[in-house]
Amino acid sequence: MSPVAVIITVLAYFAAVLLLSYFSGRKTDNAGFFSGNRNQSWYLVAFAMISASMSGVTFVSVPGMVSATAFGYMQMALGFIAGQIVIAYVLIPLYYKMNLVSIYEYLEERFGAASYKTGAWFFFISKILGAAVRLFLVCLSLQLLIFDPLHLSFTLNVLITIVVLLLYTFRGGVKSVIWIDTLKTVCMLASIVLCTVFIAKGLGLPFGGLFKEVFHNDMSRIFFFDDPNNPEYFFKQFFGGMFTVIAMTGMDQDMMQRSLTCKNYKDSQKNVLTSTVLQTIVIFLFLVLGELMYMFAAAHGITETGDKLFPAVATSGQLPLIVGVLFIVGLVACGFSAGGSALTALTTSFTVDILNAGHKGEAQVTSTRKWVHVIMAFSMGAVIIVFNLLNNTSAIDAVYKLASYTYGPLLGLFTFGIICKRKVREKWVPFVAILAPVLCLILQSNSARWFGGYKFSYELLIINALFTMLGLWILSSRSTPRAD
Asked: Within a 13 Å sphere around the CA of 372, how many CA atoms are in the beta-carbon half?
């Protein structure tokens, strides 16, 4: 696929996004930017949420990981369902009852100002790192398809990416994000289904025999119960997935900002549960597509694996041009939508939580929010460039490994606050939140030697949260004043 064809495809998608953001962002005030004025229809949000947690990382890495882990990712997806049920029936009613703009305001109400700032800063670090990993993969694919053939630098690639994110999120905020997520869902589903059809046709597989061929292949194995030391062991994946989604969705301003745009908590629950079922189906389709791509690559001498498999197959020239176009549209839609929503959430949290601008006048909040939005965008770009220099792993794996360290304290803070009414010596909370990930790093570095070969996977997030909760318990009592 030529660079010119890729550029035309990308520009066409950008034009559609900017047009949609213009109409959705007209007459948007700060309430519209931060919470969508709490009047969005739950079914629109649910459809948009199908792809909300799926970025360019999901689009490229999930199909690419099939050769290494088969369909083992479905074990995490089952955990995602359990986690989303907790979000729908525990967290959503709580957030609506408190009428929160930023979910980290809960920590101030429950513990105090130091905990509030701690939660906001951990979200900031988590989201800017996670968003950078996700956007990095999009930039990497565009570098291979456009910028390298034109002898243009990766830095210019990142700069253009950040400017596009700013253009479509600057005015409308979360209202624009929901509508663009809807477009992203349409593009992603079309890309998955049609790429699957064309690749199956290229393999000579009739539609009726497609799934039969997939399920008879060794790469379609889902469940791993045989070796507890294996990172793919079922209970590691299931509970890792469950608590990952509770932390990375239910305690993440980016993800919850969409759900909090619904009219009431019951509508928000409908949104969460509906989108969860549909997301699980989409993840399964990604894995089927991945297996077909490995079969196609083996048959046509394509040697790329992992994150490079989908770009290599889609743009190999051995499939119709439409497959390459669909890949580019799906990748750009997933990557830029996830980046835009992360940028909006970072702006919201930094403005409301860290700068305390939410209680100021409308004009002052608007001015602060715009400056923060620009600074967050270019900070994200800087992290992408650094990650490009350091990356040596699968992007989807990098996302969850980062989450194990940065979301663990958030999970511990929220869980302790909800299930326990003890009062905490609040000034020590930041120390506990920093110490817990450090202990996890020590534990993970030595687990094989200490525990007979056992290696931690994504369940490290749970250990991180438990360390945080233990620290809070040690610092708490039934009678200690909160502001001690």
From this structure: 23
Tell me phi and psi for residue 173, to 5 degrees: 60, -135
Residue 137 contacts residue 145 (beta carbons within 8 Å) = no
Contact between 461 and 249 (Cβ < 8 Å): no
| Number of residues in the chain | 484
Say how far apart CA 16 and CA 42 lie, in whole Å: 24
Q: How far apart are the first and last CA of the chain?
A: 64
CB atoms within 10 A of CB 452: 8
423: enclosing H helix or E strand: strand 423-424
Cβ neighbours of residue 16 closer than 8 Å, sequence gap 6 or more: 183
Confirm if 441 and 391 have CB atoms less than 8 A apart: no
* Beta strands at 423-424 and 476-477: parallel, antiparallel or unpaired: antiparallel
Give the H or E element holding residue 424: strand 423-424
* 179 contacts 273 by C-beta, under 8 angstroms: no
Q: Tokens at residue 311, please?
A: 């770009």
172 contacts 28 by C-beta, under 8 angstroms: yes
CATH class, 3-395 region: mainly alpha
pTM score of the predicted model: 0.74
Q: Angle 113-142/321-349 helices, nearest 10 degrees?
A: 160
Domain borders along the chain are 3-395
**Each residue's pLDDT expressed in tens, for the chain with a length of 484 residues:** 677 877 888 888 778 777 776 666 555 554 545 444 555 677 777 777 776 666 656 777 788 888 888 888 899 999 999 999 999 999 999 888 888 777 888 888 888 888 988 988 888 888 887 777 777 877 877 887 788 888 888 999 999 888 887 776 665 455 566 777 777 778 778 888 888 888 888 888 876 667 777 778 778 888 988 888 887 889 888 998 898 889 878 888 777 877 777 888 888 898 889 888 888 998 898 898 888 888 888 888 888 877 778 878 887 777 787 877 877 877 777 767 667 777 777 887 788 778 876 566 667 777 787 888 888 888 888 888 887 777 544 555 666 677 788 888 999 999 999 988 888 888 899 999 999 999 988 988 888 888 877 777 778 888 999 999 999 999 887 654 444 4
Q: Is 40 helix (H, G, I), strand (E, B) or coil?
A: strand
Residue 31 token pair: 């309430």
**Geometric angle at alpha carbon 24, from 18 and 25, rounded to 5°:** 85
In terms of Cα–Cα distance, which of 365, 355, 282, 292 is closest to 323?
Answer: 292
User: Which phi and psi angles does 23 have, rounded to 5°?
Assistant: -70, -35
